[in-house]
Amino acid sequence: MKLLQDQNVIITGGSRGIGRGIALTFAKHGANVAFTYNSSTQAAEDLVKELEGFGVKAKAYQSDAADFDKAQELAKNVLEDFGQIDTLINNAGITKDNLLMRMSEDDFNKVVNVNLNSVFNLTKAVLRPMLKKRKGSIINMSSVVGIKGNAGQSNYSASKAGIIGFSKSVALELGSRNIRSNVIAPGFIETEMTEKLDETTVQGWRESIPLKRGGTPEDIANACVFLASDMSAYITGQTLSVDGGMLT
Ligand code: NAP
């Protein structure tokens, strides 16, 4: 069954990793996909072709998620191209890990701008069309470290915890208009972001996870399909950990 037939989704950071997995899974479920990237132009162009192979409409937009004006322009362009936005997935994110003692102000601000301010930027930009349709699903990508904290990631954890508070507030503000706002908190998902870690650390992570493996972009994408579809019509303001039991 195609759960998202003819629906339109915007995904930030769709060119690689989890965002790419979400784009492909949404296309398999019949959704038209608009996605952004920052600098991976070739990967974005290749993905558009792959998505079109599922018989859906697909388009890539270069748009720096940290830029407020660019987000407003992006929403306008997607609306012109696709006609309506049913689901927004704020997925773009970066890390700039360091112990607090060594963390620069620039690395703190950069991570908060790309990971948290971006969520404000684009959520605000898609509100009007969702309000008009009296329907919408907003899915924001946090992290288990936004719930638990992590040494060496004070900037990243702060940005991811901020996403949870933001999403709950949006759920409260917009529930009466049938706009839902939920969060996914991935655990250890094997992408380019986690390739930066050394193999011993990675093996340690895998062994500590109750399901004994790292997650895949598809594991996260399946949770996004659920939160975008009417299967979750009565769910808002929640944080769903998709972490193989890591936080249990
Ligand atoms: P990734 O492989 O590094 O991919 C990041 C994506 O975000 C890329 O498509 C990248 O675009 C895009 N991006 C980065 N900065 C951007 C900006 N300023 N504007 C627009 N797009 C930008 O990361 P990932 O592992 O897939 O992570 C995706 C999300 O899941 C992030 O929010 C991350 O914090 C979260 N997460 C990941 C894990 C994990 O274990 N991997 C765990 C918890 C949470 P370009 O290709 O153009 O650079």
Structural account:
- The chain is built from 9 helices and 7 strands.
- The chain has 248 residues and is an alpha/beta fold.
- It has one domain (8-190, 218-241): 3-Layer(aba) Sandwich (Rossmann fold), CATH 3.40.50.720.
- It has a 7-stranded parallel beta sheet, with helices on both faces.
- Strand 2 (32-37), helix 2 (41-52) and strand 3 (58-62) form a beta-alpha-beta unit.
- Helix 1 runs parallel beside helix 2 (41-52), helix 1 crosses helix 9 (217-228) and helix 3 (68-82) packs parallel to helix 4 (105-133).
- The two termini are 32 Å apart.
- The model has no long low-confidence stretch (mean pLDDT 97).
Q: Name the bound molecules.
A: NADP nicotinamide-adenine-dinucleotide phosphate
The CATH class name reads Alpha Beta
Low-confidence sequence ranges: none
Number of helical segments with 4 or more residues = 9
Radius of gyration: 17 Å
Total DSSP E strands: 7
Number of separate domains:
1
Largest sheet: 7 strands, parallel
Instruction: Give the full name of the CATH homologous superfamily.
Output: NAD(P)-binding Rossmann-like Domain
Q: Structural class, judged by helices and strands?
A: alpha/beta
What topology, given as strand order, has the largest sheet?
3-2-1-4-5-6-7
